[in-house]
Amino acid sequence: MHSYVFMTDSDSDLPFEYVDKYDLKMVYMPYIVDGVEYLDDLGRAGKQAEYFDNMRKGTAPVTSLLPAQVYLDYFEPILAEGKDILFVAFSSKMSSTIQNIYAAQAEMKEKYPERRIVVVDTLSISAPMTLLLHRAYKMYEDGKSMDEIAKWLEDNRLRAHAWFTVDDLKYLKRGGRISAVAATVGTMLDLKPVIILTREGSMTAVEKIRGRKAALRFLAEKTAECIEDPETQEVMILHADAIEDANRLEAMIREKVPNVGGVAKQFVGPVIGAHCGPGTVAACFMGKERTV
Predict the structure, then answer these.
(1) Dist. CA 262–CA 286, nearest whole Å
(2) Where does the chain have alpha helices with state H?
(3) Whether 237 and 226 share a structural domain
(4) Considering the entire predicted model, what is its pTM?
(5) Quick check: 184 pLDDT over 80?
(6) Is there a domain that residue 100 lies in?
């Protein structure tokens, strides 16, 4: 019996099957389509392809913060039961959401001074966060303490990689990631930016590749260059309704890293997908520390 509860949020893009298997405590993040707010269901309804198809047809989803009160509603029943909380959060550099987590943490500390809420900023999101969570939850099952798991996450979070490319620059333009001029010129030249997670937990473009196939090849090359102990891990390929390109990337990775333990493919979640758009493909793995 654990003395604390392991919690995380749906911006990890953990598959719902994993959440159900371990009865994992999740905070579900919101997104808005045509004025209606939804919560990320981690693919439970099987509507991921429909979501990205609607984006191609002109739907423009937006994301929003969860207020501190929502975190209080998640946290208080656990603390009232006499248990502590380890909360594994997505990167503070992607959103100011974590400030609301800290606000809820402070309020609960006043109300339940004998209880602890440990919050870990993973400096990651989506599949890189999933990779960290798989190991951290295994430690939880093995009876490790909150502090042991928090230390492991902090020591290893910069080893979680995402190398990805988008298919259409207009979604990055819409989110303010690139200028309208850069989007127009990039589209004319068929430039595909390669974007990575940085050491500070933000995203930045590190390369512009002409052509989709060349961009995918670059992702495979960087996977081979940066991955560590490939035979012991499963590379995760994320895609935003681009299964053919995900399959191409898998073949390229298997060619470049023939001893990889496995390759899994899954959809990008709706919150992250709102910013990167349909056609996005990513290679995610544990490797050398991020250098940028």
Answers:
(1) 13
(2) 16-22, 48-56, 68-80, 97-111, 126-141, 146-156, 170-174, 180-188, 212-226, 243-256, 270-276
(3) yes
(4) 0.92
(5) no
(6) yes
